[in-house]
From TrEMBL:
It comes from Pricia antarctica. This is Phosphoenolpyruvate carboxykinase (ATP). Involved in the gluconeogenesis. Catalyzes the conversion of oxaloacetate (OAA) to phosphoenolpyruvate (PEP) through direct phosphoryl transfer between the nucleoside triphosphate and OAA. Pathway: Carbohydrate biosynthesis; gluconeogenesis. ATP binds at residues 201, 221, 237-245, 287, 323, 448. It is found in: Cytoplasm. Substrate binds at residues 60, 195, 201, 323.
Length: 538
């Protein structure tokens, strides 16, 4: 469908119903940067990056993410409180209202695409109300070449109107903000929120529905990198567990930061063209690659700057979820194009705030399937006065909010691919050690990196009794030694100095695993169930 006229400088949006707008097409990052400053919508940081506040929302709003229930989705989406249905007629009315709202605005339009493997390429047109949101689209999606742009035919459209407010009483939304996927019309409609993550996660969710049907390609919420000998590693994990941090490693080439496909031609490909890193407590010492990627072209969100434009990364007065987006080429060591062979190692990252999971352990295929379906991490509440107990958090496939199909579909595909590729799967606790949140401390980044490098360099010793200890509660294989990591750190029980308290906490967590797994029991094979923890409290 070629539903719009364009040349390299301009585009007509008449076919979208937008008639009178002042439209800026395909502006460069520096133009968008300059316009944002001119309109006083952002500030320039001393590093040259643009810094904006995203407004009321500084994170995604999962309760306001809907999928239009239509002929394509009705029988295929796993409906519930994650994939919330939306009436097609409500969508049509709301869509018209958003278009009317945008019709007298200056707009920023970008043509770009997702999926570095051209067999899966999805051409996208992003229509933004704000110039800086369009810079985000430049940074995060793949940038077509001049030649590719000549024949560009957008398949999906993202319509992004942060200033528009829905009226829940008549529009069918929960409140004034919304992000709605429409598979029939191929539109991601976002309103009432300026949080940029909704833009990329909208397209990710669409791909997560489409790709499993196309040549059984598995979409994954993971980062990926490749070593000097060409061996790929991928890192699954929920928000804040370390996907971005750990995949950005100077000794390995970065394939991608957050979203990948694993195709049937034995390759992993990045969906995106950029990275979206958390910057809370960022320092040039501990994370030099990310720190130095924050230069002209990068877009900082919700950070606090002093009068000289210096960012205080420890300041969380706006949000804990301070972020930066930058195009992947801001990182020095990257794989071009963003493709890798079948992974040799898969890491499941979890930030266990109970401090009971081993910092690294090897999983059997059963355990890998069980942990993938469970998708465990822990949430720590605010860091203000008083210690607030952590909450276990389970999110199937380490990304339930973006997975429209039943988790079993993704889990089956992953199990099959893991078997074919003979990969090793590791569970890595990037969370607490020496006790739970409030008592212990977060695992040192340098230790986690050392453990991962030991796996990737083959330095962990043979997988046998001499080198591994089977954890009595979780049943996972814990290495006894690891170069660069004090031996005591490898055993969480030892770091606690209180066996009884440790086991009490461990059983609490295994009970939470069991409780969560109940909803998957009906379809889980005996093999998958065997992968759960070995002991529970009664
Ligand atoms: P998202 O899905 O939201 O993008 P993510 O999995 O990419 O999340 P990161 O952005 O890598 O998560 O965030 C991990 C945070 O935890 C970073 O701020 C990092 O500095 C911090 N951190 C502290 N200790 C560790 C550790 N041992 N391993 C990994 N990250 C750690
Ligand atoms: Mn990330």
């Amino acid at each position: 469908m070629n539903n719009s006229k364009k040349n390299s400088e301009s585009v007509s949006l008449i076919s979208y119903g937008i008639t009178h707008s002042n439209i800026h097409y395909q502006l460069s990052p520096s133009q968008l940067h300059a316009i944002t400053l001119e309109k006083k919508m952002g500030k320039e940081a001393s590093s040259g990056a643009l810094a904006v506040n995203t407004g009321e929302f500084t994170g995604r709003s999962p309760k306001d993410r809907f999928i239009v229930k239509d002929a394509i989705t009705t029988d295929n989406v796993w409906w519930g409180d994650i994939n919330i249905p939306f009436e097609p007629s409500n969508f049509d009315v709301l869509h018209e209202k958003v278009i009317a709202y945008l019709n007298d605005k200056e707009l920023y339009v970008r043509d770009c695409y997702a999926c570095a493997d051209h067999n899966y390429r999805m051409d996208i047109r992003v229509i933004n109300e704000y110039p800086w949101s369009n810079l985000f689209a430049y940074n995060m999606f793949i940038r077509p070449t001049h030649e590719e742009l000549k024949h560009f035919d957008p398949e999906w459209t993202v319509i992004n109107a942060p200033g528009f407010r829905a009226n829940p009483e008549v529009d069918g939304t929960r409140q004034h903000n919304f992000a709605i996927l429409n598979f029939t019309r191929k539109i991601v409609l976002i309103g009432g929120t300026g949080y940029t993550g909704e833009i990329k996660k909208g397209i990710f969710s669409a791909l997560n529905f489409i790709l499993p049907f196309q040549k059984t390609t598995l979409p994954m919420h993971c980062s990926a990198n490749v070593g000097a000998t060409g061996e790929t590693a991928i890192f699954f994990g929920l928000s804040g567990t370390g996907k971005t941090t750990l995949s950005t490693d100077r000794s390995r080439k970065l394939i991608g930061d957050d979203e990948h496909g694993w195709n049937n031609e034995n390759a992993v490909f990045n969906f995106e063209g950029g990275c979206y890193a958390k910057v809370i407590n960022l320092s040039s010492e501990s994370e030099p690659e990310i720190f130095h990627a924050i230069k002209k072209g990068a877009l900082l969100e919700n950070v606090v700057l002093d009068e000289n434009g210096t960012v205080d990364y420890t300041d969380t007065s706006i949000t804990q979820n301070t972020r930066v987006s930058y195009p992947i080429y801001h990182i020095e060591n990257v794989q071009r194009p963003s493709l890798g062979k079948n992974p040799k190692n898969i890491f499941f990252l979890t930030a266990d705030a109970f401090g009971v999971l081993p910092p690294i352990s090897k999983l059997t295929p059963s355990q890998a399937a069980y942990h993938f379906i469970s998708g465990y991490t822990a949430k720590v509440a605010g860091t203000e006065a008083g210690v607030i107990a952590p909450i276990p958090s389970f999110s199937a496939c380490f990304g339930a909010p973006f997975m429209p199909l039943h988790p079993a579909k993704y889990a089956e595909m992953l199990s099959q691919k893991m078997k074919n590729a003979e990969v090793n799967v590791w569970l890595v606790n990037t969370g607490w050690t020496g006790g739970p949140y409030g008592v212990g401390t977060r695992m040192k980044l340098k230790y986690t990196r050392a453990m991962i490098n030991a796996v990737l360099n083959g330095d962990l010793g043979l997988y046998d009794y001499d080198h591994y200890h089977i954890h009595s509660v979780f049943g996972v294989a814990q290495p006894r030694e690891c170069p660069g990591v004090p031996t005591s750190v490898l055993s969480p029980r030892t770091t606690w100095n209180d066996d009884e308290a440790y086991y009490t906490a461990a059983f609490k967590l295994t009970n939470a695993f069991r409780e969560n797994f109940k909803k998957f029991e009906a379809f889980a094979s005996e093999e998958i169930r065997r992968g759960g923890p070995q002991r529970y409290a009664f």
